[in-house]
Amino acid sequence: MTIVSDTISQDPEAKARPMRINWVRAAPWLYTLGLFLVWELLVIALDTPVTVLPAPSRVFQAVVQYWSAIWKNSLQTLFTTTLGFGLAVGGGLALGLFIGWSKTIYAGLYPLMIGFNAIPKVAVVPILVIWFGIGTIPAVITAFLISFFPIVVNVATGLATIEPETEDVLRALGARKMDIMLKVGIPRSMPYFFGSLKIAITLAFVGSVLSETVAANYGLGNMMSSAQSQFNVPLVFAGLLALAVEGIAMYALMAWIEKRMTGWAHRSTMAN
Amino acid sequence: MPHLVSIDDVDMRYGGAEGTLAVSGLTMRVGKGDFAAVVGPSGCGKSTLMKLVTGLHIPQKGTVIVAGRQVTQPVSIVGMAFQNPTMLPWRTTLENILLPLEIVERHRHRLRANRREYVGKAEHLLELVGLKGFGAKFPWQLSGGMQQRANLCRALIHEPDLLMLDEPFGALDAFTREELWCVIRDLHAAQGVTIILVTHDLREAAFLADKIFVMSARPGRILREHRVPFERPRELELMYETEFNDLVHQLHGEIASARIAA
Q1: What is the DSSP string of B170-204?
Q2: What CATH number does residue A184 fall under?
Q3: Which of helix, strand or coil describes residue A178?
Q4: Residue B102 is nearest to which of A166, A183, A187, comparing CB atoms?
Q5: Domain count across chain A
Q6: Chain B residues in contact with A163 (beta carbon < 8 A)
Q7: In whole angstroms, what is the distance from residue A78 CA to residue A201 CA?
C-alpha cells in the first residue's frame, strides 16, 4: 500500500518539473511575437495597402530581399553610433568630473549645458555639413552631441552628492580634494555613470540616424530616406527593424557592463 | 597633566559677519587620556565644537590648541565617528577600516609595503569591537550596530591621539547602544586614547565620561563642568544606582533651564 501511494504522490511532481516554463525569461520573446502577430492580423483585417503599413511578413521578406544593403548600412550606422557614443563616454566622463569638482564650475557650466542640450540637433546637422561635408563625420558628431549630456549630468550628480560626513572624516585626516575625489567621488559616481550609458547609447542611435537621413550617402538613415522616396515602404520598415535590433543589442551590452562594474550598488540598495 | 585640547574664548560665526553665531566665548580643556562628554540642548553648537577641534573650521576669535599646536588646518591626529557610519559600499569592511591609512601623511607611503602589518592591526581592532572574521564582508551585509563598530575601528586605525565621537550611537536600539558603550569603555581603557563624545544621551555621558561639559543654547558656551566620580571599570549596573541617577537628574535640570534661557 505504502509503495503504491508513494509512487502516486511523487509521480505528478516528477513529471511537472521538466515541463515547467520560465515565463519571465520567455516573456520578452513572447511579447515581441505577440506584437508581430497583432500587427499582421490588423493589416489583414483592415486590408491596409502595402505603401501605408506593410505586414511584418512583408517586412521580413524585404529584409531577405535587400539583405546585403541592410547589412552594409547597418554596419555603417553601428560604426558612426559607436564612435560618437565612445567620444561621448570619454568626453562626458571628463567633463562630468570637471563640473563635479567645484561648485563654481558646476554653477557656471550647468546652464550653458542645458541651453546646449535644448538645441534641436537636427538644426545643428546643416552647420556640421558646412564644416565637414556630408557623410560619416556629421553622423558621428551628432551621435556624440546628443548622447553626451546624460553622461555629464549623471557623473556630476554622483560627485555632488558625497555625504558631508564622509568628506569631514577624510578632511580631518588631512585629505586633499584629489584624495576625496579618487577614494570617494569617482567610485561613488560610477553607478550613475554606467546607468547613464544605457540612456546615452539609445540616444546616440537617434543622433546618427538623424544625421544620416539629412546628410549622408550611407547608413540606415540614408537607406530609409531613399527607400521612402521610391515608396518602398517595406524596406523603410526593414530599416526600422534593423535599428531596433541594434538598439536592443547595444542596450543589453551596456546593461551587462553596468552590472559587471557596479554590482555593489545594486546589492547595497537591495540590502537596505 | 598636560592638556591635549585647550579651547580659549572661541567665537565661531557661519556665513560672514551677519551670519549666525554658533559658539561664543567657548572655553574648555581636556587632558590627555581623558574621556570627556559634551551635552547640551539641540542646536547648541556641539557639532561646531567637533569641527573646531579637528580643524575643519577655523574660529574667527580665540585659539584652539590641540597637542601643543594651534589649529590652523585639519589635524591628522584625530579620528572621527558620526551617527551615520558612512562606510563606503564598494569596499569591504576591512578596506573601509584601512581607508584613513591611505590618507594620513605618515602612513600613506608605508601602506603598500607594510600592508600585512596594517591588516593585522585592523583585524586586532575588529576583534576588540567584537567583529572578528567580518573583515571580508561588505558594509551593507552588516547590521547597523555592526557598521557602527566598524566605524569605530576606522576612526582608530591610524592610532589617533584624540577620538571625536558625534552621537555615534544615536541611531541604534537601546540594547545595541549599551553593548557599544561597553565597547567604547574597553577601547578607552585598552588604547589610552583621549575621547571627546558629543551626545544628547545624558546616561551615556554619565556612564562613559570622566568629565561632562554642559553647553548653553546657541550661541554655545560651557555652562558647567562636572567631574564624574564613579570608579573605573564601570559596569552597566552602575546606571541603576542612586548617585548615578542623581547626576543624570542634575544634568537634565541644567539643560532644561539652558533651553528656557534661550
Answers
A1: TTS-HHHHHHHHHHHHHHHHHH--EEEEE-S-HHH
A2: 1.10.3720.10
A3: helix
A4: A183
A5: 1
A6: 84, 86
A7: 11
Contact A264 B90 (CB under 8 A): yes
CATH superfamily of B31-55+72-214+223-261: P-loop containing nucleotide triphosphate hydrolases (3.40.50.300)
| Parent domain of A197 | 58-264
Q: How far apart are CA B24 and CA B260, in angstroms?
A: 18
Task: Return d(Cα A197, Cα B65) in angstroms, integer.
Answer: 50
Mean pLDDT over the full length of chain A? 86
CB-CB neighbors (< 8 A) of A263 in chain B: none
* ipTM for the complex shown: 0.81
**Contact (CB<8Å) A169/B86:** yes
- Which helix (H) or strand (E) segment is A75 a member of? helix A67-101
pLDDT in tens, A82-104: 999 999 999 999 998 888 888 88
Q: Is residue A72 part of a domain?
A: yes
Structural domain contains residue A155: yes
Q: Which residues in chain A are closer than 8 Å to B100, comparing Cβ atoms?
A: 169-170, 173
Cα–Cα distance measured from residue A148 to residue A269, given in angstroms and rounded to the nearest whole number: 27
